Amino acid sequence: MASYKLGSKGDEVRKIQDRLKALALYAGPLDGDFGGGTQSAVKAFQVKEGLTVDGVVGPESWRTLFREEVTKLPLAQKPLDHRCLALTGSFETGAAFPDCFAGISGDFDGQGMSFGVLQWNFGQKSLQPLLKDMLRDHRETAARIFGSKLPVLEEILKADQEEVMQFARSIQHPVKHFVTEPWKGMFKALGRTDEFQQIELRYAKQLFDEAVALCAEYGLWSERAVAMMFDIKVQNGSIGKVLKQRILARFADLPAGAEEEKEVARMKVVANLRAEAANAKWVEDVRSRKLCCANGTGSVHNILYDLQEQFGIRLARHPA
Questions:
Q1: Residue 158's domain spans which residues?
Q2: Which of 73, 117, 173, 319 has its CA 20 to 30 A from that of 85?
């Protein structure tokens, strides 16, 4: 999850302010702007709960502030493929669940518009099938989201590729390529629905199955290992034959240890060597994502993650 601190803005900050107000620690406006008053209230809360007093709402402060909600953790009740897709989606978008399923970007890469965890796009015709499935199987939900724009979307999904790309470019800034309202909000709302998330899962199934197979190939058994291999499939594509031999050779040099210790040690080997094999520009990005999976915690793009607390992904045998 993100860390919220002085200067942060948005709905999550408003939620923090609302909770602090309910605890009689904050008397300011619920404006979603993390200013000095919010910071003082957070520090007062941290003192009260015996937490590190830094005025920052990171994972520990968030869990304590919303302990009732954490016990529910709806994502933890979902199958492992849903949890892994949410984690990789969060890495990709920087957004928490369920917004991690609703990442959206414009034509910066020549693909018209990209959407969802795996950035399915109009340019490669990979997004159209998901949207068609949504309209076919969950028309009522789609109609509620898109309203009067639904007929436009229906016609676009029947149109030739040139018209599709013209439409995609017409709903975004011509230079900065961000999707504009109301389409941005409607697509974001679509990605938050369980119906569209299930469609995303279906279209990501092959990658998830391949991630499970990779775990078996490298003798890994945990949910965290599946999450790491799935992130490799999404971000890096594969593990080459030469790299595989390097990984297995490093495995042979690992000291003996308890089963869980060996699992983590092996995951760290995979994480580090796969990162070193990436394009030099992305080595540290790959490393931070994969080590976060291996360790169960970590910082990716300055966002703190706890896989078990936030995604229900544990160092336990996966059921897949």
A1: 102-196
A2: 173
